[in-house]
Write a structure and sequence with these properties.
about 325 residues; five-stranded antiparallel β-sheet; D-amino Acid Aminotransferase, Chain A, domain 1; about 10% strand; 16 helices; alpha+beta; DNA ligase i, domain 1; globular
Length: about 325
């Protein structure tokens, strides 16, 4: 598939406010993908790069975007993926010049519309409303499977690309392969905004209310002697939070999966600001020094697995009781 086809679909999705039309446009494109293109297309339509952050700044992209552009599209999705893969892997001494050359060569082959899309993609600014929620429904429509099965597989996989490949190539049997697996992060359940308390509780039978401490979301897995901790974005942050590893590791339980948040507290037990807690999760950390300065405490609000038993499908009240 040409990159231009995906760019046109992205533009069409962004141009309509009708949710059904967005899903229909995305599903139509997904049905046309070759197997090798599925993961790339789903990444791009979700506003992500399969390679992760490339490390290209706005100023450089602005300069490239101002150059002459061919009128006829010729780049395929796989051409772009290969070019960005080469760019991502070009590191070390003398790499800056080679990276500029690779990026210029790629942009030199893009039409104006493709160039605009790639610029936004590289900067993490794709805003066509085709992020995870819509993509799961579009995948379900394209693969002719229930949306709930796609959402469940995405929850377990933590990676919509793998779920898309399974759904489009294997249907329901492919989606059934995704199960809760300790030490592999689950997609977190996120809060949704409401206008007021009445709106938040509307339609609910019973409700549980938690204090929001404004900490950092953590998902903690224990499997035997191994403990891994993941952030809201599913990054492995185990090495950054040794006190949480030690705390959970000391529990007399062989396997569990906890969902909660961690926060740095003052000596009197009051919480520090969110930005202070987040200092524990930066790059190039002095972990032990930060641990002494900003010791973390954990507060858990859900338990999804314990001692070989998955609790994900159990009522919340039962999970809270076990927790």
């Amino acid at each position: 598939m040409l990159l231009a086809d995906l760019v046109a679909t992205s533009a069409g999705v962004g141009a309509t406010r009708a949710r059904r039309e967005k899903i229909a446009r995305l599903a139509a494109l997904l049905r046309r993908l070759d197997p090798a293109e599925i993961e790339v297309a789903v990444s791009y339509l979700s506003g992500e790069l399969p390679q992760g952050r490339i490390g290209v700044g706005w100023a450089r992209l602005r300069d490239l975007a101002s150059g002459p552009a061919p009128e006829a599209p010729a780049l395929s999705l796989l051409d772009v993926d290969a070019a960005l893969g080469n760019l991502r892997s070009t590191t070390g001494s003398g790499s800056a010049s080679e990276r500029r050359h690779l990026l210029a060569a790629l942009f030199g082959r893009t039409t104006a519309a493709e160039r605009d899309f790639l610029t936004r993609l590289l900067l993490g600014e794709v805003r066509q409303g085709a992020l995870a929620g819509l993509m799961t429904e579009a995948l379900a429509a394209a693969a002719e499977v229930p949306p709930a099965d796609v959402r469940r597989a995405a929850l377990f996989a933590g990676d919509l690309r793998a779920v898309a490949r399974a759904a489009l190539l294997e249907g329901l049997p492919g989606l059934a392969q995704f199960r809760l697996q300790l030490l592999r992060p689950l997609q977190p359940m996120l809060a949704q905004p409401a206008d007021d308390l009445d709106a938040a509780l509307d339609g609910l039978d019973e409700a549980a209310v938690e204090w929001k401490l404004d900490g950092a979301r953590v998902q903690i897995h224990k499997d035997g002697s191994e403990v891994r901790i993941f952030s809201r974005r599913l990054n492995d942050v185990t090495a950054a939070v040794p006190e949480l590893v030690e705390s959970v590791g000391s529990l007399p339980i062989r396997s569990l999966l906890l969902d909660g948040e961690t926060i740095a507290l003052r000596s009197d037990g009051s919480p520090l600001a969110f930005r202070d807690t987040m200092r524990r999760f930066g790059s190039r950390l002095e972990v032990e020094a930060l641990r002494r300065e900003l010791p973390l405490s954990a507060f858990f609000f859900d338990l999804l697995h314990i001692e070989g038993r998955d609790l994900l499908d159990q009522p919340a009240a039962e999970r809270f009781t076990v927790l």
